[in-house]
TrEMBL record:
PANTHER family in the cross-refs: PHOSPHATASE, ORPHAN 1, 2 (PTHR20889), PYRIDOXAL PHOSPHATE PHOSPHATASE PHOSPHO2 (PTHR20889:SF1)
Keywords on record: Hydrolase, Magnesium, Metal-binding
Cofactor entry: Mg(2+)
GO molecular function per UniProt: metal ion binding; phosphatase activity
Residues bound to substrate: 19, 99
Active-site residue list: 8 (nucleophile), 10 (proton donor)
InterPro entries: HAD-like_sf (IPR036412), HAD_hydro_PyrdxlP_Pase-like (IPR006384), HAD_sf (IPR023214), Pase_PHOSPHO-typ (IPR016965)
Naturally occurring in which organism (per UniProt): Xiphorhynchus elegans
Originating gene: Phospho2
Family that this chain belongs to: Belongs to the HAD-like hydrolase superfamily. PHOSPHO family.
Signal peptide as annotated in the record: none
Name recorded for this polypeptide: PHOP2 phosphatase
Length: 241
């Protein structure tokens, strides 16, 4: 009896968007209008690449970025939830699929001592160049028309499950915890026995209820959360089963 917990990162594990939080490192804590308005839908990673160049051009160094990123608050109840999962790893495998990047997620999880809770993190690869600039790449290429160019979370989840099956690991239930529009694609992949946990008041919840109104509801069960303690209550029930 093993359960797979799939977490988004921004506005789910942390209560902010890590990519917009880094703007606190910019001069006057804001970006020039031209840069801010250069974002094109579906091309967030390229946009963040330009943001990182701007920060590098303004002398923002790695240690300052790290200091800033590790001040991001976790979502209410999340530190308790991650502690609980960490203590019950025999029941729960746990992964992150996120549109953030490897460096931000690494910094934040390690600073709070939660790195070992997660078996794998799937996100855009990031590195610091020899000149000290942060660079980020698209996670993969895919052919899904519903998802941003750099990341289809359904594809990531499906490939992870296939790989686990090859190792002889299958899951009693998948619990998908997220908030954003790009979490809908993997949620629509979930089966009847699985559960989607959208954050209350966020895009994912709205999109799931819109589908239900259009009479094409998702297959899985849906349980809305507003604090991570709601998620923990559900996981405690699973563990008892």
């Amino acid at each position: 009896m093993k359960f797979l917990l799939v977490f988004d990162f921004d506005h789910t594990i942390i209560d902010e968007n890590s990519d917009t939080w880094i703007v606190r490192c910019a001069p006057d804590r804001k970006l020039p209008n031209g840069l801010r308005n250069s974002y094109q839908p579906g091309h967030w990673t390229e946009y963040m690449g330009r943001v990182f160049v701007y920060l590098g051009d303004n002398g923002v160094k790695e240690d300052e970025m790290k200091r800033t990123m590790t001040t991001i608050p976790f979502t209410a109840g999340m530190t308790d939830l991650l502690g609980f999962i960490g203590e019950n790893k025999e029941f729960f495998d746990c992964i992150i699929i996120s549109d953030s990047n490897t460096i931000f997620i690494d910094w934040i999880l390690k600073a709070a001592d939660f790195h070992d809770v997660f078996d794998e993190v799937f996100t855009n690869p990031a590195t610091f160049s020899s000149s000290g600039y942060l660079t980020v790449q698209n996670f993969h290429t895919h052919h899904c028309a519903k998802c941003p160019k750099n990341l289809c979370k359904r594809k990531v989840l499906k490939e992870f499950l296939d790989k686990q099956l090859e190792r002889g690991i299958s899951y009693t239930q998948i619990v998908y915890i997220g908030d954003g529009g790009n979490d809908l694609c993997p949620v629509m992949f979930l089966k009847k026995n699985d559960i989607a946990m959208p954050r209350q008041g966020y895009t994912l919840e709205k999109k799931i209820s819109q589908l239900a109104q259009d009479l094409s509801p998702v297959q899985c069960s849906v349980l809305v959360w507003s604090s991570a303690s709601d998620i923990m209550s559900y996981l405690k029930l699973l563990k008892k089963e």
